[in-house]
Each structure stands twice: as structure tokens, then as C-alpha cells.
Amino acid sequence: MPISKNFALYTILFALVFFIQSAIAAPGPQLDPPNLCKLACPPLMKCCSHEPLEICLPEC
């Protein structure tokens, strides 16, 4: 049993590391919150800055 538990743990850790690295090494300009926010917002929503994060709202 310990072998399968370790295998699952390492698989999860590897997936997290891979995901973080792929997010950091994304193509195009450096990741900055306004671009990410605009990409995540639906077409009719606006990216509004509310410290400490940015959210999508109909109007700012």
C-alpha cells in the first residue's frame, strides 16, 4: 500500500509543477493581471480593479 500512496502523491506533485511551469512559460507577453482578467471576462463584462484582485462586472 505505501508504494501506491507515494505514487499518487508524486503524480499530484508532478502535475502541479507542470501546470505552474506551463502557466509561467505561456507564449506571448508576460502574464499581467489586466490581460488575464480581460481574457477571463465574458464579452459584455468589464475588467474592474478591486484591491487586491480584479473581477468581471457589468459596470465598474
Please describe what this structure looks like.
This protein is an alpha+beta fold and 60 residues long. The protein has one domain. 52% of the residues lie in helices and 17% in strands. The chain has helices at residues 2-24, 33-40, and strands at residues 46-50, 53-57. Strands 1-2 form a two-stranded antiparallel ribbon. Strand 1 and strand 2 form a beta hairpin. The protein is rod-shaped, with a radius of gyration of 18 Å. The mean pLDDT is 73.
Report a brief summary of the structure.
With 60 residues, this protein is of the alpha+beta class.
In total, the number of strands is 2
| Strands side by side in the biggest sheet | 1-2
Structural class: alpha+beta
Q: What is the residue-averaged pLDDT?
A: 73
Strand content: 15-25%
* Total DSSP helices: 2
Oligomer: single chain
* Total domain count: 1
Uncertain segments are none
Largest sheet: 2 strands, antiparallel
Q: How much helix is in the residues?
A: 40-55%
Keywords: Signal
Signal peptide: 1-25
